[in-house]
Amino acid sequence: MLRILLMVLLSFTLAPGRGLVAATDLPPDEVTVKGTTLKGRVLSLEADGIRFESLYGKGEILIRYGDIEQIQTQMEYHIHHSRNQEIQGRLVGKEGDRLLVGADAETAFRLNPGSILRGIPEVTHERSWVARLRTRYPWWKASLDAGWVFEKSAADTTKISLGFNAERRKSPTRFVGDLRYAFESQRTATTPDSTTKDEMRGFLLGEYDLSRKWFSFAAPAVEWDRPRGIKVRSYSGAGVGYRFLETKKDLFQLQLGPGYVYEEFTDLGSNDYWAAFIGLEARYAFGPYFNAHLHMLWMPGIQNIHKNWLYRADLEFSVPITQLISMKLRFNEVNDNNPSPEVGNNKLTSTLLLSLSF
């Protein structure tokens, strides 16, 4: 069943006008850096430089604006700059420290590179609908994940995993929403249907930049896990964070602040406590081959760390198949003060997922 769906999705994304962007017949862009003219394609404009792919090899590099002596592109770009300002045009040169954006050098707009937030190539009707969507919503990215298993044997087993993630990053703000659900049932010839997994987790994250590295944040979350006896658990935190690294694909940051946990168990009453909120998030792109994303959260109780604590860790590897589809392998560790002796405190889950990325 997984093979059939994958074939359908591949045929959909590779169909004319729907899938991968066909190689353009336009001449290459030219960027002169320290006396050397590079030929290739300007993929995007970022706050600290241009993303450039050489004509002679695969993989992109970042060229800082201060190192660019001259530049000529064939495609037009939607360039967002100076907080909610936008200009569209080709890059037709450089005058002093200003980029020339327009149809020609004489009439071009003189753009200060320091004001650039992001620039994306103009998308025509001949490009893929995914590229058009990304151009229209340049600050957003989203993914829809699905994994399932159906096994018919001595024990009939059905497993379903669903997830949705959306992120908007436009300085000075960043918003992330994530929702996951997993279900599993089992039946044998002598036993009726039994639910062995019924769990949900959703969280929101809001960040506001205080400086280039420091930011404030708020992060509420809620979950349930029926087989582990967790009727509902909510946990949230707020405070400040420090961003060690942030590029279009890579991120490494820490969060610290106070937090609060409320939990209600199916047969064992409820509990609540104040805690410290310690978070870590890191993602890294290993070229075009695969991406890794790590998210960790530790909330030790302030009054009694041995009685009350909460720990979450997600490690996810993503391997692109097409521009739209990727395979994900996710490891999730849950460790908390669950008082039920039958299920224990710790749970480690690995899941293989098919993901659609926009």
Describe this structure in words.
- The protein folds into two domains: 25-132, no CATH class; 140-357, Outer membrane phospholipase (ompla), Chain C.
- Helices cover 6% and strands 64% of the residues.
- It is elongated.
- The chain is mainly beta and 358 residues long.
- It is built from two helices and 22 strands.
- Strands 11-12-13-14-15-16-17-18-19-20-21-22 form a twelve-stranded antiparallel β-barrel.
Helical percentage: under 10%
Judged by helices, strands and strand pairing, the structural class is: mainly beta
β-strand percent reads: over 45%
Stated plainly, the CATH topology of the largest domain is called: Outer membrane phospholipase (ompla), Chain C
Kindly provide the radius of gyration, computed on alpha-carbon positions and rounded to a whole number of angstroms: 24 Å
What count of helical segments does DSSP give?
2
- Mean pLDDT over the full residue set: 84
CATH-defined architecture of the largest domain: Beta Barrel
- Look at the structure and give the CATH class of the largest domain: Mainly Beta
| Secondary-structure element pattern, one letter each | HEEEEEEEEEEHEEEEEEEEEEEE
Q: How many separate structural domains? A: 2
Main sheet specs = 12 strands, antiparallel, barrel
Number of strands: 22
- Poorly predicted runs of 5 or more residues: 1-23
Distance between the termini: 24 Å
